[in-house]
Amino acid sequence: MAPTSQWDTAAAQGVLEGAGGEVLDVSGATLTYEARESYLNPSFLALPRGVDWRAGLIELANR
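^ that's the sequence the OP posted. Answer follows.
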């Protein structure tokens, strides 16, 4: 719920993806770590890959 930085989430994202999950920005795209002005992450979702409620969660996150 607090701001997170790339170094807070990158390793955890690797573990989650290895276990069959995914980390997405609120538009539904995979959270990436390309060069940008700030190291702060945008809002994101961490969830199991391929769940049927994925689209509904992304819609809720954009309200």
